[in-house]
Amino acid sequence: MGLVLLVALLLVLILAAVAAGGLVSARLEVDGAARQAARAAAAARDPAGAVSAARAAAEAVLASGRSGCGGPAVAGPDVGVGLFRPGGAVTVTVTCRVRLADVAMAHLPGGADLTSAFTAPIPSWRSR
User: Fold this and answer.
1) pTM
2) End-to-end CA distance of the chain
3) This protein's superkingdom (predicted)?
4) Most buried residue among 4, 68, 71, 128 by CB atoms closer than 10 A?
């Protein structure tokens, strides 16, 4: 009887570790999407181009990953262009809703909202 309880407890711990690892992997993917989107936005020529470049870069990174962030659940990215001029900065925030069933081996209920922001400098040597 004690061995059965011990095995069940070990299985629960293993599944919790797998779920935590999946969430960490999804978090890294969202961080990478925000970083790539900010760099793409900083390379754009104007604020409208920055928004579209950031959106395309974030969606490409999230669609290529395994976190379950690709698709209609992606909110954003939110692109703050501020003073869009050489020497300025652009900030991109990417938010993604990840279902726990997608990142774990078990069908766990619920999910987590993952948000990441990254600021990239606009090159000062660049002309408009």
Assistant:
1) 0.79
2) 74
3) Bacteria
4) 68
| Amino acid letter, residue 126 | R
User: Two tokens at 97?
Assistant: 């809703």
The residue type of 46 is D
Sign of CA dihedral 31, 115, 79, 77: positive
The pair phi, psi for residue 109, each rounded to 5°, is -75, 160
Question: What is the spatial distance between Cα 104 and Cα 106, in angstroms, rounded to a whole number?
Answer: 5
User: Strand order in 89-99's β-sheet?
Assistant: 74-80, 89-99, 111-121
